# Entry
Amino acid sequence: MSSLHEHPDVDCEVLADIMGPSLDSPGAKPPPPPTRAARILRIGDRLITASDTLLERWLPRELNPLAQLGQAVNAMLLLAVASGVLLLIWYSPSVVLAWSSLADLGPRSLGGIMRSVHRYASDLLMLLVLVHAGRTFFARKFADARWLAWVSGIGLLGLVWFIGWTGYWLVWDERAQLLALDTIRMIDVLPVFGEPMLRLFALDRTVPSLLFFVVFFLHMVLPLGIAGGLCFHLARLSRTKLLPDWRLSLWLGGAVVVAALLYPATNAALAQMAVKPAGLSMDWWYLWPLEISARLSGGGIWLATFLAATGLMTVPWWLARRRPRPIFQVTVNVSRCFSCTLCSHDCPFGAITMVPRTDGKPFPSEARIDPDRCIGCGVCSGACDTQAIGMAWFDAMRVTHELEQFVLAAVARGEAPALAFVCAQSDGGWELFDEVAWQTRLPGYTVRPIPCSGWIEPKLIERVINKGAVAVLIVGCGSSEAFCKEGNQWMPARLSGAREPAFRPNRADPGKVAHMNFDPLRPHLLTEAAARLREQQPAPAVPSRSKTGAWLVGALLTAVTMAAVLWVSDAPFLNPAPAEPEFVFTFRANGDWLSGEAVALPDPANDTRPVHMRTALPAKRTRMPVVVRMAIDGQKQEHSFAPKGFKSDGSSAGDLRVPLEPGLHHIVVSVATSADPLAKLLTWSGEIEAQPRRYTVLSYEAAHGFQLEP
# Structure
């Protein structure tokens, strides 16, 4: 055993009493529940826990993906990044060549397989992220000190989605066309560019290559931001494991490769800006916003995005309750602390540090609580043999005294008392703990809820057994991602002597104590085990898991999961844009200068400016708006476009879209750049044939004049 964990093999309560008295413990009521809507959240938590226990009938916890969701996300992230980097061998980041560079890959060539692995690893990554977020939400792991993990996690979820969104730009197929148009409509709402960007996406030849490269750059660089986000996400956890068991990593990676071979990823049709895509398949893992954004304006998209992001980010404030920290966090009675450091080692959240001694006693350090990290799980109480640390509302010394008195009274009445300590998180939290149901489930036992199975200190078990208890059963929650993270690990280790403070068989009969995690799908197993413990009957031999059964269950689970991933990745999508044809006029023109008064020149004798700057300029150098008049089959309309720039001295640019009925239409378009009614207009007229799901685009540039696009 490490020297850090060594402590005197004496009755630590006697030692602590010599060091100092215990703090007064009023035995306050449990603190209010950490979240609102706890009953609803408990339903989701129970479903996930039931899935946990069902899987672990055949799979060890090391291979249970639900037990390693965060680590599995990281494994898929690494696979997606590695395959994306290798894909650059074949991919050309150009708006002209991007589509063909991917379409020309054979579906089962090395490049084609790498492209499919990149896509499906990204899709499985998103599935795992969503399940991880859902599990965290239903388990109420966002309240109090856990707000940072939740907020950073939502930020990472948004970042992963945005990276996938930019990735679909880079294919430049019909999917990319739709998301590019929606993205540009959002950008045009912002006062960023001097002219509407949407007009550049009316024609294939005007799609800006520079913008395409910017998207490519973001897609390559933003994954680095995930590493920074993970630092915040994991900052308040102890003993963080970044990757899952290597066997699970290989299994997930192999599943993605098999999916890439059986169902290769393909391009949609090449993007054509003059065509409205009708039905196509779409990766709903990343492109689902198209179902909403296609029906909204640019401002509406921003509003929906803001409301969704704000609602998710602020869950720790509008769904969690505000609880004063002293009522649920642990406190330290320094006078009873003898610097064993066990509490700091066992705390799952790194909330305890050892600092220099402040009371003058001959010990090098004392425990100190970081209130920004403590969630009040009580695991540190189980690590402290002197009961120097704990929660005021569930003080270990007071509870121990009450239990001793209860056992002594029961023995005096001729009874054989048996105690069952049940983790309150098995029922969704202290406020929802159903003592009647648990009493029915554990007949012959006196049931006591506890904050976490790790709250139990072995000395408490020794004392109640010595007072006459015939059995002590400790029931941990069945979740593989326990609310208190490590309580279910430390308790069995303490009972077996593998972790200090250890249960001492020379002080109490180890045959009278047992630890068991609750299986909500098979509650009878707990009832039977409790009965055997009370009657001192040996537990039946636990049958070893069948390796064949584990392989079959793992293969079935993988097949179902990947089938769901592939279906969502290539599900049908109907473009909500109306099928009616549209006439599009896109232009950029300079309005005439408006005259302005000249600035008075200073006295030449006192003019210190360079010679080339000694001229009078108009006081108001602005351009007039450009007026566009349009007549379609005799129906006239007029639009005015103000010049761009802070001083209104730039070009006027615009993009007009008019729905048409299919068939022939006579159109006249004129552009007026002067306020003089006698000035010559720039005019185009002609007939067009409007076709369903197509744009007929007329463009105007001063250098090229009017051009009717084919």
Remarks:
- Confidence is low (pLDDT under 50) at residues 1-9, 18-27.
- The radius of gyration is 35 Å.
- The domain at 582-708 is CATH 2.60.40 (Immunoglobulin-like).
- Residues 95 and 209 are 6 Å apart (CA to CA).
